[in-house]
Amino acid sequence: MNTVLRHKGWTWGFRSTVLLYFIVLIVLPIIGVYANSFSEGWSNFAESIMDPIAWKAVLLTVRLAVVAAIINVVLGTMIAWVLTRYRFVGRSFLNSLVDLPFALPTAVGGLMIMLLLGPISAVGKLAESMGFEIVFHQPAIVIAMTFVTFPFVIRAVQPLLEEIDPSEEEASYTMGASKARTFMQVILPSMAPGMISGGMLAFSRALAEFGAVVLVAGNIPGRTLTASVFIYGEIESDNPTGAAAVSVLLLTLSFLILWLINLVQMRGRRR
Questions:
Q1: pLDDT at site 73
Q2: Which of 82, 167, 191, 224 has the fewest C-beta atoms under 10 angstroms from its C-beta?
């Protein structure tokens, strides 16, 4: 009996600790952002959201994050395919490099982009001679977002590729299907949940990117000013309500994305 009571007490204590940790580090800060954004009333919230600079910053961030997510879905799926289906020298090393953006501070990623593609670099000088620039313009923002979200699609697709039963592909070939048809009807449906969820995670992460973007964007309102940098500027300008209002937009969008990811994963498990 004492053993049972001790077991129940330990379980209750463990659950309570985890729940308290979750509430203090996640729930309370989120509630604080929402409360701060509406602290001066709905009219002030609407005014902050409809501010032309804020609105353009949010729209620009969403648009460029979509571009970065699409790039990651295409390239990430190809890289996951190569790392899973082929054996070659250096494969393990390349596989470990996939997670490098997770380990590096994002500001370091921004610095790398500046050094490789900036005006003083060989690539930057070549681009300038062709009549366009990369750093301090929107292409640099897309590159920064793509870099920091690079692992998501790869790590979401890899396990799905590994779980595909080779006999299904062999059966498709036996029935006379071409490689292209086998890929479209057998392999792609198995990879699709990972591609979708990984792309959504990449999009959600790109929305919030600050460290790499602030170094390479130029931060020109209406042209290269992203939402995260705008929020930072509002805090520096002693306008936390305006910063919280834009943060609420990003938070709500991120919640919707996470809900969709959950839905996609649940449907994938049912299949």
A1: 94
A2: 167
- Per domain, the residue ranges of the chain are 10-39, 51-269
Note the pTM of the prediction, 2 decimals: 0.83
DSSP 8-state code for residue 1: -
Assigned token pair, 256: 């919707």
DSSP letter (8 states) at residue 26: I
How far is the CA of 156 from the CAs of 86, 101, 153, in angstroms? Answer: 18, 15, 5
Query: From CA 33, how far away is CA 133, in angstroms rounded?
Result: 37
Q: What angle (nearest 5°) sits at the alpha carbon of residue 69, between those of residues 232 and 79?
A: 130
CB count within 10 Å of CB 206 equals 28
The pLDDT tens digits for 9-33 are 667 777 778 888 878 877 788 787 7
Helix extents (H) in the chain: 2-22, 28-37, 42-49, 52-85, 91-97, 100-103, 106-117, 122-129, 138-148, 150-163, 166-174, 179-182, 188-207, 211-216, 227-236, 240-270
Does CATH number 1.10.3720.10 belong to domain 51-269?
yes
